[in-house]
Specification:
The protein is of the alpha/beta class. The chain is built from 15 helices and 15 strands. It binds nicotinamide-adenine-dinucleotide. Nicotinamide-adenine-dinucleotide binds next to helix 1, helix 3, strand 2 and helix 5.
């Protein structure tokens, strides 16, 4: 399933996509097909049509819109929102050529761009899909839940602790309001991973000794700066490479491994993290202020440790794998294999986990059984932020230090124009804030 995730990423990440590539990518995602007392505006029971809108019309967002359309025959995609008109147009073109074109009903008045695009989408829809760069997630999620709408929320859910605290509050509010909040931490919706984790949680490995999780891949896309772009536009169009926008690769991509680590540990938060990282290959200014590798040790209060590695280096070996070792055996999560006293193996699931997230979302709305993935999506994001803080500072960072951190990565103002880049972190000099 590592491949699934990497394919989803590669829709727009492995190279500079042309418009035709984007459309093809969208169509490919669409091919993998598979579904009160809610607030009164959502007449969602039975066959009622639900109006869905997307905020952040890039590769994953367009893919998520297709997954939603695959999941429930009675939804309509009625609104798109993106910072940039060209991104919105590419997405719309792909969706209008997809197998679901009859349910893509987006009038010009429902195509929103700019900083406030999210407001228009939220107002127009019953269910909102959030897939912008992660920095905006806390703000957008809050607006969706305040407006009383259901939500699919891509990972990660924040890039700093103030954002994380906001999402924790918003997730609690979603619960109070009986709204569904489904997270894009997709492995949690994969049948084969669910079965493997259940066996581990039921004791197949005995007492836990340690864990190891890896996300070792090549580099991702970048967009060469155009003379007409302001600093802000350059950063937004290359959001992976700016910590305020992506959280760095440990938060943006390695979160998939960190989330499986948390899942193996029954979502108990680690006591502390200690880590290394730096820029070994991506040293040019085009790569902003992020690192290109992280090696983190997480330790729990019972002394169990997880060794977590991530890097994005071109021309090197790939390894996306997660392991747990106990006194009765070991597990390879990505291969759904347990060895030792309780040896077991199963095949990958034929079902698409990205579709299953949306099947669960719409079913929960129609059955008035709200899903709230707030707990694990915030804990996994928090563990990733904690690992980044440990690598950036070179210090041991406790869970409480991360949770109470005042480091607010947001720019002084949200507008196109000059925006100075925060200096690249230097371990031993960069402080815990
Ligand atoms: N679950 C997964 O396997 C998976 C895979 C890929 C990406 N993702 C996540 O999905 C999100 C999007 O990633 P992507 O690969 O689609 O990136 P992308 O760059 O292709 O798309 C992001 C889009 O958001 C738009 N945008 C930026 N700021 C905005 C704002 N303030 N308001 C509205 N639109 C804005 C951009 O213009 C762009 O079109 C990220 O959080 C990423 O981590 C998840």
């Amino acid at each position: 399933m590592a491949q699934d995730n990497m394919q989803s990423n590669s829709i727009d990440r492995s190279s500079q996509p042309t418009r035709r590539d984007m459309v093809r990518g969208v169509l490919a995602v669409g091919a993998a097909a598979a579904v009160s007392t809610f607030p009164s505006f959502v007449h969602a029971a039975g066959s009622d049509v639900l109006k869905v809108g997307l905020i952040g019309c890039g590769g994953r967002g367009t893919g998520a819109a297709n997954n939603a359309l695959n999941a429930d025959p009675n939804i309509k995609l009625v609104a798109l929102g993106d910072m940039f008109p060209d991104k919105l147009e590419t997405s719309l073109l792909g969706l209008r050529q997809s197998q679901h074109k009859d349910r893509v009903d987006i009038s010009p008045e429902h195509q929103f761009t700019g900083w406030d695009a999210y407001k228009g989408v939220i107002e127009t829809c019953d269910v909102v899909l959030l897939a912008t760069p992660p920095h905006f997630r806390p703000m957008h999620l809050k607006a969706v839940i305040d407006a009383g709408k259901h939500v699919f929320c891509e990972k990660p859910v924040a890039t700093d602790a103030p954002g994380l605290r906001s999402v924790i509050e918003t997730a609690a509010k979603a619960k109070e309001k009986n709204l569904s909040l489904v997270s894009g931490l997709c492995y949690r919706y994969d049948d084969a991973k669910i079965e493997t984790m259940k066996r581990i949680h039921d004791g197949a490995l005995g007492d836990t000794i340690n864990l190891n999780v890896n996300y070792l891949t090549g580099g991702l896309w970048s967009n060469a700066r155009k003379p007409e772009w302001s600093d802000m536009e350059w950063q937004l169009r290359n959001w992976l490479y700016f910590t305020w926008l992506s959280g760095d690769l440990i938060v943006e991509q390695h979160i998939h491994s960190i989330d499986k680590m948390m899942w193996m540990m029954k979502d108990e938060t680690p006591a502390f993290a200690l880590g290394n990282g730096g820029r070994a290959c991506r040293t040019q200014p085009a790569y902003g202020n992020v690192y290109d590798h992280f090696n983190t040790t997480y330790e729990w209060k019972n002394g169990v440790r997880c060794f977590a590695s991530a890097r994005q280096w071109d021309g090197t070996a790939n390894d996306v794998s997660d392991w747990m070792y106990g006194n009765k055996g070991s597990a390879n999560i990505m291969n759904h294999t347990i060895t030792g006293e309780n040896a077991w193996k199963r095949k990958a699931s034929p079902k698409n986990m990205y579709d299953l997230e949306h099947v669960a979302l719409f079913k929960s709305i129609r059955n008035n059984e709200p899903i709230n993935n707030g707990d694990y999506m915030t804990k996994s994001t928090g563990a990733a932020i904690m690992g980044r803080m440990a690598a950036y500072t070179g210090l041991k960072v406790t869970w409480d230090q991360m949770m109470n951190s005042k480091e607010n990565l947001a720019p002084a103002k949200y507008e196109m124009g000059p925006l100075e880049m925060t200096p690249i972190a230097v371990p031993g000099k960069t402080k815990i804030v």
